[in-house]
Design goal:
The structure is a single chain. This protein is α+β, with helices and mostly antiparallel strands and 781 residues long. Among the domains are: 187 residues, Aldehyde oxidase/xanthine dehydrogenase, molybdopterin binding domain (Aldehyde Oxidoreductase, domain 4); 200 residues, Aldehyde Oxidoreductase, domain 4. 27% of the residues lie in helices and 25% in strands. The chain has a seven-stranded mixed sheet. A hairpin with a 2-residue loop joins strand 30 and strand 31. Helix 9 packs across helix 10.
């Protein structure tokens, strides 16, 4: 295999910024001072505002609608109606593994509360938008609604979407078989059946406001979008707004924060931008389209019911897992991907059903809990049934694929150039002393503290959150006359500090100073693909090409250093060869005589002379190199593990998280501070998903706490101590052996709580883990 494709075996240059702590984030000044410009902050001269009507019902259709009062309100410029010719046929499609999701754009029927439906008002101010929406007179035909997936699947249930499925309420149904569960159960001494409910009556919310600004300049359209993927926004506008070719659409993605998957995959960023574009085209004015409500993020994919049947033996070896899921957003494929890559369990049967409900469409929001849920619940319940330390149960079943256990994987590691370290054992040994696991673990319900609270310890594990990289993206690099280095790519900001990571790598590979490298373009740059964002996928996908481009830039600088300049100028390092030189900390120097050094700018300034403004690829110091996708069977050898210590008040049901220990074997930490930020921030997100609840009225289907006053999220005070630990066994197939770390703590942190609570009170409770459920389990509810 060519060395260029064995990214995981590359080593970063020694003594650089990769792996260092305490480096200044590239975005710190703007964000810390409040000067960062977010999409919501964009305002254009002559700008109008747009907002869409929200349904007051869980399921209803417009019988009649009178716009006259709204149209006569001063400051109303136009009203976009659901049956207008330029919008009535628009549909946005988003693709998931083995399924297609359809996202409603604008229509006259609401399928959940408070769905965006019907008219969009375009007005001089936000306040006029709100008043105009109140003045629209609508007669609604209220329709039957169903909030529970089991009710939706009962014989004779009202058909909720006859336009999409006239026979029943099933939106998606997938059956997946791996091996033979019948043989697995026959070989098992014990069979355990249980159900885990992530209650749809008490759901989580995804809080993420949406905004897009569009300005039309003759044949050109500028859009400022809230999205991870500006390329998709551009393509969606091109397809849905006639008159603008791709080269005439300029997509800007300012600072955003959030965009944790769901709205990106559902295309909400594109919908907002398309609506703003239609409004701008009608009015001839720039338009800011605003969605303020949390419900636009959709339901969390973790929602639903999980029915398990597990076969296992006394030694903990699990032989078969059979489960049926209802209403999980991702399909069985995504649910299985963790347990089948983390264990050697050989046999699975999965029946995955998603019915139509009168709730927000489930999406990937803070991605990953369904996949973690399956592995976590199987191992948590089997360990409890056997009275076995869950860590030992993990050791027994640790593997890389169905029927392939980790103790037989050393030959694969060796062939591919990895070490034969045992990642699971390493993360266990790293976390146990910090959590004091061996001293604090105990039998369920057996430890009551002097303060009267029950004490509990929870533990869970998984493969390291990984994205197995493909060919990656195709960024470019320009070295400026002053020696500064600019990464050229389309990129968005999610708040995860991706730009600092990319700048570290380019600085070290080129030999520039970290402070002299920037990756700031929030705009589309023609000819360059999107980098940044991507949750756990960004770094793994983007670095191979970026490193090759940086190495090409370094080679180019050295070649220019020994090359005579224009108009007879002598070479900066006359009489030397490329092999005589190196670059470090922004200086080109002679290896055998390090005092003979010149700043990078001494070379670039010579050859920039006479070079006026040009397209990037025509600049003398532009470099771009695409990586080649490796043709090798890829496995996940690295592990992550989580310890959680809780106290449960038997009188109130309140859960106090005393300590979380988070250990990630992430292969290689480019930016350790950023990685620990992901570990800590993700832990809070995960805990929030385990306890947050959004309630629905059973009579009307309307959310009862659909705001941030009634719907509360955890603060920094909710977890007393978080100890993040990073291990670097270089097991990833990304450059330098790295994995992505995004999403992992939020996903696994969302599912560990019910095991910790079980250990405290000796009773299983469902998600979200709210005080009323604990009191009920204790016979006090």
């Amino acid at each position: 295999m060519a060395e260029e494709t064995r990214w995981w075996l590359w080593e970063p240059p020694a003594g650089g910024s990769i792996g260092k702590t305490g480096l200044r984030r590239k975005d710190v000044s703007e964000k810390a001072t409040g000067k960062a410009i977010y999409t919501r902050d964009i305002n254009r001269p002559g700008q109008l505002y747009a907002k869409q009507l929200l349904s007051p019902h869980a399921h209803a259709k417009m019988k009649s609608i009178d716009y006259s009062k709204a149209e006569n309100l001063p400051g109303v410029r136009t009203i976009i109606k659901w049956d207008d010719p330029d919008v009535k046929d628009i549909e946005i499609f988003r693709f998931f593994p083995r399924e297609v999701r359809w996202t409603e754009f604008i229509e006259n029927e609401a399928h959940w509360y408070p769905a965006p439906v019907g008219p969009i008002v375009v007005c001089d101010t936000e306040q006029i938008c709100d008043e105009a929406l109140r003045l629209i007179d609508i007669q609604w035909e209220e329709l039957p609604f169903i909030l529970n997936p089991e009710d939706a699947l009962k014989p004779g249930a009202t058909i909720l979407r006859p336009d999409l499925n006239s026979e029943n309420n099933i939106e998606i149904e997938i059956v997946t078989d791996i091996g033979s569960v019948d043989e697995g159960f026959a070989a098992s001494k014990h069979i355990l059946e249980f159900t885990v409910r992530c209650d749809l009556e008490d759901t989580w919310a995804g809080v993420e406001g949406q905004c897009a600004v569009v300005e039309i300049r003759g044949d050109y359209l500028d859009v400022w979008a809230h999205s991870q993927h500006p390329c998709e926004v551009t393509d969606d506008i091109r397809k849905q707004v006639p008159g603008f070719t791709r080269d005439k659409i300029n997509c800007h993605v300012p600072y955003q924060g959030a965009t944790f998957g769901g709205q990106t995959f559902l295309g909400q960023g594109s919908i907002t931008a398309i609506q703003a574009a239609i409004a701008a085209k009608r009015t001839g004015r720039p338009v800011k389209m605003i969605y303020d409500k949390s419900h636009f993020a959709g339901c969390e994919e973790q929602y639903g019911y999980y029915h398990f049947k597990v076969g296992y033996n006394d030694d903990g070896k699990i032989n078969a897992v059979d489960f049926t899921t209802y209403y999980t957003a991702q399909t069985a494929h995504d649910q299985l991907v963790k347990i089948t890559e983390a264990t050697g369990i050989p046999n699975y049967h999965v029946h995955d059903i998603q019915p139509y409900l009168n709730k927000n469409q489930p999406v990937c929001w803070k991605h990953g809990p369904p996949a973690c849920m399956i592995q976590h619940q199987v191992f948590g319940h089997v360990a409890a049934a056997l009275g076995m330390d869950p860590q030992q149960l993990a050791r027994v079943n640790d593997g890389i694929a169905p029927g392939e256990y980790m103790d037989h994987a050393d030959h694969i590691k060796t062939e591919q150039g990895f070490s034969t370290a045992n990642s699971l054992e390493d993360v266990i040994q790293a976390g146990n002393p910090i959590a004091d696991w061996n001293n604090k673990k105990h039998e369920p319900g057996s430890k009551i503290l002097p303060n009267g609270k029950y004490h509990g310890m929870g533990w869970t594990w998984n493969i390291h959150w990984s994205h197995v990289p493909g060919g990656g993206t195709n960024p470019g690099i320009i070295v400026q006359p002053d020696g500064g280095v600019r990464i050229l790519a389309r990129r968005s900001d999610m708040g995860v500090d991706a730009e600092s990571t990319y700048c570290r790598v380019v600085a070290d590979e080129v030999g520039a100073r970290y402070d002299d490298v920037n990756c700031r373009p929030f705009d589309e740059i023609p000819g360059f693909e999107h980098i940044g964002g991507g949750g756990s996928t960004g770094t793994a996908n983007n670095l191979p090409s970026l490193i090759l481009s940086a190495r090409k830039a370094k080679q180019g600088l050295l070649e220019y250093a020994v090359k005579p300049g224009p108009r007879g100028a002598a070479a900066v390092f006359a009489g030397k060869t490329v092999d005589d030189l190196d670059i470090k900390d922004g200086y080109i120097f002679e290896k055998s005589n390090t005092s003979n050094k010149k700043p990078i700018s001494a070379v670039t300034a010579v050859f920039w002379q006479g070079s006026g403004p040009q397209a990037p690829k025509n600049h003398p110091f532009f470099y771009q190199e695409r990586s080649v996708t490796p043709s090798v069977e890829q496995h996940v050898f690295a592990r992550q593990a989580y310890w959680q210590e809780v106290e449960v008040d038997p009188d109130t049901g309140q859960i106090d998280v005393k300590k979380m220990v988070v250990v990630n074997d992430l292969g290689r930490a480019i930016s350790p501070d950023g990685c620990k930020g992901q570990q800590i921030g993700g832990t809070y997100m995960g805990f929030g998903k385990a306890i947050e609840a959004q309630y629905y009225c059973p009579t009307t289907g309307v959310k009862l706490n659909d705001n941030l006053l009634g719907y509360t999220i955890p603060t920094i005070l909710e977890i007393e101590e978080i100890d993040p630990v990073i291990l670097e066994n270089k097991f990833g197939y990304g450059a330098y052996g790295l994995y992505g770390i995004g999403e992992s703590a939020a996903a696994n942190g969302a599912v560990i709580l019910n095991v910790a609570v079980y250990n405290a009170i000796g009773k299983w409770i469902d998600f979200p883990c709210t005080p009323d459920k604990i009191l009920k389990a204790l016979g006090k509810g």
